[in-house]
């Protein structure tokens, strides 16, 4: 720590500290200095911090800072490396040095942060031309999942460890968060990687069709069954079966699924003999199975069989540092198609994207980038090229995505409102509420909408 002269404290005691401090900030405006209060809201963001981070003072001052810029009480004198993306797509690695501040009563009151550049990539870093970019993406990617947040890194480690076992896995996450990618990663890392990986959405079919699709049927089992049909369990023998939206599985089929897990065999629809099968199950849901059990809609014994290894995927709104990473990842993918090349993002457009709550998570973000490529032209992505919902105020319908329980009347009203705002387009309405299309249809039927 720097040692100050003995005369400095005595000199400071006779100075008006507020004007002195403000003049010091003015002198340091060219450095990457910033200040946050106890609630992690930005109270000062220097011009140097703007240039290093690509974030404008007008956009961040008075708002909660991004997680990588936070300064906690335990962070005094800590140094860490963070990555930032400028609005022109350049990726810059920064070193953050933090100093904690206390008020006159000794309570934590915020902190000073200093950003220093470590390395900076060339102007065309947004384009997939450099090997260093590919190496960096590989570091932040994991079998199709892309993230640099600690929460997702922990998820990656659980996937890695679970894949080495034969345990049944239950993936919990909102619509569009990447549950199937998690299932594919588990399969790809397991000893079953060379056997089939099959998937089915349990909410997409009626009970009878789902029964036949999962367990197969024999000839003559029902009208139209003109020949034997092998179900997914039989076709996935030796491999992995992914059961998406497993909470939507009808109760009568839950009993058959439990038998397969326990006994490793099943009887096809209309059959009279059991078929042995060796299949690993990875299930997924956006609902709490415990709550479904309490409501009498899900078997408790099956819940425990499915959630041997539970994995929770944080929604995109809780890992904001991934938003710019994913935006540029999808931009690079579309740039490769040579239809349009985006090299920069307008600062206001980037702020709008960072502030959005992303109810449809990564899938919605990908769709937004695709929309911008379709409707816009030129090398800069602008606000006018974002979907209409980015220019509209948020409504009560967004409550559905905030994990707060809604009454049937509130949920019904939210569905009606989503349909009105999307002009009757089911996919858009379902995405705005964080629901799958199948779940959205089922709820419309329940509420008679």
UniProtKB/TrEMBL annotation:
<dbReference type="InterPro" id="IPR025944">
    <property type="entry name" value="Sigma_54_int_dom_CS"/>
</dbReference>
<keyword id="KW-0804">Transcription</keyword>
<keyword id="KW-0805">Transcription regulation</keyword>
<dbReference type="InterPro" id="IPR002078">
    <property type="entry name" value="Sigma_54_int"/>
</dbReference>
<dbReference type="InterPro" id="IPR025662">
    <property type="entry name" value="Sigma_54_int_dom_ATP-bd_1"/>
</dbReference>
<dbReference type="InterPro" id="IPR025943">
    <property type="entry name" value="Sigma_54_int_dom_ATP-bd_2"/>
</dbReference>
<protein>
    <submittedName>
        <fullName>Transcriptional regulator with PAS, ATPase and Fis domain</fullName>
    </submittedName>
</protein>
<dbReference type="Pfam" id="PF02954">
    <property type="entry name" value="HTH_8"/>
</dbReference>
<dbReference type="InterPro" id="IPR003593">
    <property type="entry name" value="AAA+_ATPase"/>
</dbReference>
<dbReference type="Pfam" id="PF00158">
    <property type="entry name" value="Sigma54_activat"/>
</dbReference>
<dbReference type="InterPro" id="IPR027417">
    <property type="entry name" value="P-loop_NTPase"/>
</dbReference>
<dbReference type="GO" id="GO:0006355">
    <property type="term" value="P:regulation of DNA-templated transcription"/>
</dbReference>
<dbReference type="InterPro" id="IPR009057">
    <property type="entry name" value="Homeodomain-like_sf"/>
</dbReference>
<keyword id="KW-0067">ATP-binding</keyword>
<feature type="domain" description="PAS">
    <location>
        <begin position="33"/>
        <end position="69"/>
    </location>
</feature>
<dbReference type="InterPro" id="IPR000014">
    <property type="entry name" value="PAS"/>
</dbReference>
<dbReference type="GO" id="GO:0043565">
    <property type="term" value="F:sequence-specific DNA binding"/>
</dbReference>
<keyword id="KW-0238">DNA-binding</keyword>
<dbReference type="InterPro" id="IPR002197">
    <property type="entry name" value="HTH_Fis"/>
</dbReference>
<dbReference type="GO" id="GO:0005524">
    <property type="term" value="F:ATP binding"/>
</dbReference>
<dbReference type="Pfam" id="PF25601">
    <property type="entry name" value="AAA_lid_14"/>
</dbReference>
<keyword id="KW-0547">Nucleotide-binding</keyword>
<feature type="domain" description="Sigma-54 factor interaction">
    <location>
        <begin position="145"/>
        <end position="374"/>
    </location>
</feature>
<dbReference type="InterPro" id="IPR058031">
    <property type="entry name" value="AAA_lid_NorR"/>
</dbReference>
<dbReference type="InterPro" id="IPR035965">
    <property type="entry name" value="PAS-like_dom_sf"/>
</dbReference>
